[in-house]
Amino acid sequence: MIRAHTVEQVRAAEDDLLARLPEGALMQRAAAGLGYAVLDLLGSAYGRRVLLLVGSGDNGGDALYAGVLLARRGVQVEAWLLSDTAHSGGVAALRAAGGRVVPAPGAEADAQRPSRDRFDLVVDGIVGIGGRPGLRPEAVAALARVAGTPVVAVDTPSGVDVDTGRVDGPHVTADLTVTFGTHKACHLLDPAARACGAVQLVDIGLGFRGSQARTSTTEFSGPIEALQAADVAALLPRPAPDAHKYTRGVVGVRAGSAAYPGAALLSVAGAASGLAGMVRYDGDPAAADLVRAAHPEVVGPGRVQAWVVGSGSDAGAEDAVRRSVADGVPMVVDADALAFAGTTRGRPAVLTPHAGELARMLDVERADVEARWLEHARLAARRYDAVVLLKGRHSVVARPDGRARVTTTGTPWLATAGAGDVLGGLVGALLAAGLDPFDAASVGSWLHGAAATLAAQRGPIVAGDVAAALPAVVAALVGP
Ligand SMILES: NC(=O)C1=CN([C@@H]2O[C@H](COP(=O)(O)OP(=O)(O)OC[C@H]3O[C@@H](n4cnc5c(N)ncnc54)[C@H](OP(=O)(O)O)[C@@H]3O)[C@@H](O)[C@H]2O)[C@@H](O)CC1
Ligand SMILES: [K+]
């Protein structure tokens, strides 16, 4: 499990360690991890040119000492100091190792004029966990002069809001972020996560591994987690040796209509992933005929352990939600049915809006949701007293108490019509199999992303390909 920790928590862990270690030891560990990550990315050292952008704090210190490591291996290292008070030990060490240290060109320099020197890579040591969101003009100017060069961010891409994943104003967009001790929210949550590129965690002995995130006093309330393959494998329902179809759970689908039979087919395809014992379809007769033709194992209405209500159900959405709520079993509420999500209060439910749908549910602008995913997912979870799976590049699953998980599987190819129907059906199957709504939503979302990635290895995908790839993803996790 990846658990993001707040700046406050990182500082507390660092204080514990600093009291026990020689001065500078933590920075040396961080810089070594960073330096080797840069060497890996460069692929070779001699003749390569690396630029360090160095701010006033320890983030710049990390960059400078990583530069020492690189210079000693033959890389030509240049550091642009963005402040008069850059880490003095780091500056001296880099000069001693043969690096060039100069003041940054400054905000008044012509930002459109590219640097005369070409660099293979830029290391962003402008600010880390001590930074305020946004960038100062001199940092913006320096970045503009090396635009187009690959960037490795030290700890966090400078300019993003570390604890919330928000992005307001200019920031670094990295190809790789090398972080220390633990992940922070900005590494998981969009839009900041998009600015991180790949994220590499360097162990510096902060002692977070396997530890529970503590609740912070900031607005960042409750831990943020990202399930990993082993977590999903542990949570996946498996048939007991003496299982029969009813003990494995029955999932019912109320989606699709005569006008939109595809929604019925795709929701059922997600539900029929094999993770529940049986699938029932309760919907329009014409859609039901198509469902039976494509999925002969699917049966008609009856008792279920979970309902999936939503997409394409036309004017029937309200009635479908009402009847499902009356059954008292857990339910997935998607698409058209989200307009009636308020009626599921007090029942175990997973609401699966995308950003536009969540904006309507909260009566806010879509752009606000997309700027602050976690905050809005949590707000909706509290307001609707349900688990909310806010679908996006990094989907967020939030509980009413603020606990949240982020999905980091997936591929841009997943942005395809009907993929949400497959996800709804899949989450319904997991609910029927007995997972609680938080686990069902986060495991379903993880599997959905992994299946899309697998399917996309053969080229562009459509929603049905995602459903078809689910068994192979499950097999890779838990064996045949
Ligand atoms: N904790 C750990 O476990 C370890 C931490 N380590 C490393 O230390 C980093 C944290 O270092 P830190 O505390 O010195 O803060 P940091 O982010 O370098 O800069 C803060 C200074 O920048 C300034 N400033 C603020 N906002 C700004 C902006 N938008 N744009 C420009 N400047 C801005 C402001 O100073 P000002 O200029 O306002 O005086 C402020 O004081 C951490 O990310 C990691 O890399 C590792 O070495 C070892 C283990
Ligand atoms: K940085």
UniProtKB/TrEMBL annotation:
Which reaction does this enzyme catalyse, per its entry?
(6S)-NADHX + ADP = AMP + phosphate + NADH + H(+); (6R)-NADHX = (6S)-NADHX; (6S)-NADPHX + ADP = AMP + phosphate + NADPH + H(+); (6R)-NADPHX = (6S)-NADPHX
Q: Entry's Gene3D superfamilies?
A: 3.40.1190.20, YjeF N-terminal domain (3.40.50.10260)
Q: Where does (6S)-NADPHX bind?
A: 58-62, 128-134, 155, 263, 312, 354, 421
Which keywords label this protein?
Answer: ATP-binding, Isomerase, Lyase, Metal-binding, Multifunctional enzyme, NAD, NADP, Nucleotide-binding, Potassium
Q: Which PANTHER family match?
A: ATP-DEPENDENT (S)-NAD(P)H-HYDRATE DEHYDRATASE, ATP-DEPENDENT (S)-NAD(P)H-HYDRATE DEHYDRATASE FAMILY MEMBER
Protein's job: Catalyzes the dehydration of the S-form of NAD(P)HX at the expense of ADP, which is converted to AMP. Together with NAD(P)HX epimerase, which catalyzes the epimerization of the S- and R-forms, the enzyme allows the repair of both epimers of NAD(P)HX, a damaged form of NAD(P)H that is a result of enzymatic or heat-dependent hydration. Catalyzes the epimerization of the S- and R-forms of NAD(P)HX, a damaged form of NAD(P)H that is a result of enzymatic or heat-dependent hydration. This is a prerequisite for the S-specific NAD(P)H-hydrate dehydratase to allow the repair of both epimers of NAD(P)HX.
Protein name (Swiss-Prot/TrEMBL): Bifunctional NAD(P)H-hydrate repair enzyme
- Taxonomic lineage: Bacteria, Bacillati, Actinomycetota, Actinomycetes, Propionibacteriales
Gene name of this polypeptide: nnrE
